[in-house]
Every structure is written in C-alpha cells, then in structure tokens.
Design goal:
single chain, 210 residues, alpha/beta, TIM Barrel, binds D-xylitol-5-phosphate, binds zinc ion
Length: 210
C-alpha cells in the first residue's frame, strides 16, 4: 500500500491543521521550505517552523526548495525528521550535502523538477533513500498536475529497478484522487491543498492510498 505525506503549505491555520492531521493515519507531514531564491516564494523561518513539534508527533518529510541546502540541513535534522530532500538542480556539492544528511542518521533524498532530465539523478543513486518527482513546477501549492509526470515515474522506476537500489519514489504536486491514478508506480504520494482544504482529512488521505 502506498504511503501518504501531506503538505501544509496551503493551510490557512497551520496549528489547527497539524493537530487534525495528527489524528489521521497519514504517514508523514511534508514540510515545504522555500528561500525566495531557488523559488520565488519564501516560507517562515526555522525559528517559527520548528514549532511543528507542538502540534504533531508524525514523522517529517522535509522538502528543501533552497539554493543552499547545507545551511538548512543541520536545522531540520533537529526535528522529528524521517527524510530531508533537496533539489538535484542546486549548485552546491550534492554528494557532500547527502552525506551531511546521513551524518545525522536521517534518510536523504533528491527532488527533480519537471524540466530536468531523469538521467541527471544517475550519479547519486547509490546515496539515495528517496527521490521526489515533482509533478508541478516547485514554488507554490494548488497547481495542476503535469500529465507527463506519469512517463517520468516509469522512466525512474525502470532506472532504479535496473540498478536494484532500494529507493522510494515520492510524487509531489497537484495530487488528488484522480491524478494519483497516474502515479501507480510511486511509493509515496505527497498532497497539499486536496487534503488541507477539505472537510475530511482522513477521507482524502485514504482516497490517495490506492
Ligand atoms: C510545491 C510543493 C508541494 C505542494 C503540494 O512547490 O513542493 O509540496 O505544496 O501541494 P499541492 O498538492 O497543493 O500541489
Ligand atoms: Zn513539496
């Protein structure tokens, strides 16, 4: 069965929505971090973001949409974090950043934007626990799922299977009960507005599982 990660990026009342998510069977809370440089928007600073722990005991799936992951990794490693993932498009030393994440005994991942070739991931496969395939252009919640993501997931699945690496595929952006049908080869579905803008979080989470 697929795992589900929920992003609170589009939430209007974060403490309330995190408490509501804590009462569901969601697997992870997806924490979107934006620096206003790698993407236009900016999320709240770590000094505020770290308060997440007050509202949820769920494990965190941290998605860094930032130019310099090495600045953020030590901060987010302090929280109840399962994965820290940053983008393969960054200019920092990718292997050094992946090793920095692992030095905290946290699972590491790379995210890939819709316009980047899947083959860019090849050099890093031996280091990775997860890959986030972006199904929207990173930067904001509530966008429409890009249909060609389906063939990109297939390409990545074939690549991972050919090398036999135990890497989880997470798909992020524009996911709902319809678009998740195009992600049957994924292990984790990340969804934001479809869940947090709904009346019943649990019902929406269950609808993404299979
Ligand atoms: C996009 C973010 C996603 C997004 C998911 O830049 O990385 O995590 O917020 O939200 P929805 O499901 O609303 O696209
Ligand atoms: Zn995300």
């Amino acid at each position: 069965m697929k795992k589900v990660s929920v992003s609170f990026l589009s939430s209007k009342n974060i403490p309330q929505d995190l408490r509501k998510l804590n009462d569901t069977d969601v697997d992870f809370i997806h924490v979107d971090i934006m620096d206003g440089k790698f993407v236009k928007n900016k999320t709240m600073p770590f000094s505020e973001m770290k308060n997440i722990y007050k509202y949820t005991s769920k494990r965190l799936d941290v998605h860094l949409m930032v130019e310099k992951p090495s600045k953020y990794i030590p901060l987010y490693a302090e929280l109840n974090t399962e994965f820290i993932t940053f983008h393969v498009e960054v200019e920092e030393d990718i292997v050094a950043c992946l090793e920095l994440i692992k030095s905290y005994s946290i699972k590491c991942g790379l995210a890939i934007s819709p316009d980047t070739k899947i083959s860019e991931l090849i050099p890093y496969l031996p280091y990775l626990d997860e890959i986030i395939v972006m199904s929207v252009v990173p930067g904001e919640g509530g966008q429409e799922f890009i249909r060609s993501t389906e063939s990109r997931i297939q390409e990545l699945r074939d690549l991972i299977d050919s090398y036999q690496f135990p890497i989880l595929i997470n798909v992020d952006g524009g996911l709902n009960n319809e678009t998740c049908k195009y992600c049957s080869l994924a292990d984790i579905i990340t969804s934001g507005s479809y869940v947090v803008k709904s009346e019943s979080f649990q019902e929406k989470i269950s609808s993404l599982r299979d």
